Amino acid sequence: MIYYVEDDTNIRDLTVYALKQAGFEAQGFPAAGEFFAACKQQLPDLVLLDIMLPEIDGLEILHMLREDAAMKHVPVMMLTAKGTEFDTVSGLDAGADDYLAKPFGMMELVSRVNALLRRASTPAVTPGDTISCGPIEVCVSAHTVTVDGQPVALTLKEFDLLHTLMSNAGQVLSRAQLLEEVWGVTYVGETRTVDVHVQTLRQKLSAVGEGTDALIQTIRGVGYCMKPPRDMGA
Known about the structure:
Blueprint lengths: L1 E4 L3 H13 L4 E4 L2 H10 L4 E4 L8 H10 L8 E5 L4 H9 L4 E4 L4 H15 L9 E4 L2 E4 L4 E4 L2 E2 L4 H12 L5 E2 H9 L8 H17 L7 E4 L3 E4 L8
Parallel strand pairs: 1-2, 1-3, 3-4, 4-5
Antiparallel strand pairs: 6-7, 7-8, 8-9, 10-12, 11-12
Helix pairs in contact: 4-8, 6-7, 6-8
């Protein structure tokens, strides 16, 4: 089930209709009150959020979802007219897994929805499966990240991005490769999405462990590389 919180009736109805035509179960809500009431009856598989909403704005709703034990792992995509780079970073910092600026095409929306749901439903690997790069440790089965033993709260996409970089430590991954690996082969969008996610990922890592942001190296004109463990002391 996909829930969409949007106060513009025309946009909400058209989007819900398009999602249903694509084979999804979807329901729209004009404001936070109706949305949270529905969540008590049935937890969604994905939430689509506008930012400019009556009562409680979308970023505050997102914050509430990430603080809720039952909802904190539900993927959230922001669909909003606030489409500047600052707005995108703000949404991702708040815990959004993706961000799509209005006006958007329904084919692109459906593609991104498919990618988010596919990543969210990927089964966990063998318990205890961990990857370490210096002070950073990722436990895939538990979906946790720590820096020197201290937990780091990441969104679904940030986690997948970090895991991909650490799994390929020492290798340069292009933005196109990261888009395909993290967002799925059907992802439609600009590679700037990768840059924004890397920026927020670095900020969250360095907030827990000073200097850890430098472990994700920018390779100008190409992409990114996680510094391999053998070079950590360099």
